[in-house]
UniProtKB/TrEMBL annotation:
Domain B12-binding: 18-84
Coiled coil: none
Species this chain originates from: marine sediment metagenome
Protein name per its UniProtKB record: B12-binding domain-containing protein
InterPro entries per record: Cobalamin-bd
PROSITE patterns referenced in this protein's UniProt entry, alphabetically: B12_BINDING
GO MF term (any one): metal ion binding
Length: 84
C-alpha cells in the first residue's frame, strides 16, 4: 500500500485580519514556519507532501478552493491563525 499524498495549506490573511485595527498595517508579514517544519518532518519519513502558501503566492480563498478541487492528495491539513 502506498503512503498518502499530503497537502498542507496556509490560507491568505490580510494584516488587518491578523493584527486587528489596533495594529493594522504596522504589523509585519508572517512566514508559516510551523507548516514548513511539519512538511519537512513528514517528508523525512517518506511521505509525499506539498505546501500551498496562499499568502506567499498571492492567492485568494477562491483560488485555493480551486486548487483543492484538483484533489491530488489524500490528506489535507489547513493552518489557522488566531489573534490571542
Amino acid at each position: 500500500m502506498s503512503k498518502p499524498k499530503i497537502l498542507l495549506v496556509y490560507p491568505p490573511i490580510t494584516k488587518l485580519e491578523r493584527y486587528s485595527s489596533a495594529i493594522g498595517a504596522s504589523g509585519g508579514e508572517q512566514i508559516p514556519l510551523g507548516v514548513y517544519y511539519l512538511a519537512a518532518y513528514v517528508r523525512e519519513r517518506g511521505y509525499g507532501v506539498d505546501v500551498l502558501d496562499g499568502e506567499a503566492l498571492g492567492l485568494t480563498n477562491q483560488q485555493i478552493i480551486g486548487r483543492l478541487r484538483d484533489g491530488r492528495f489524500n490528506v489535507l491539513g489547513i493552518s489557522t491563525t488566531s489573534v490571542a
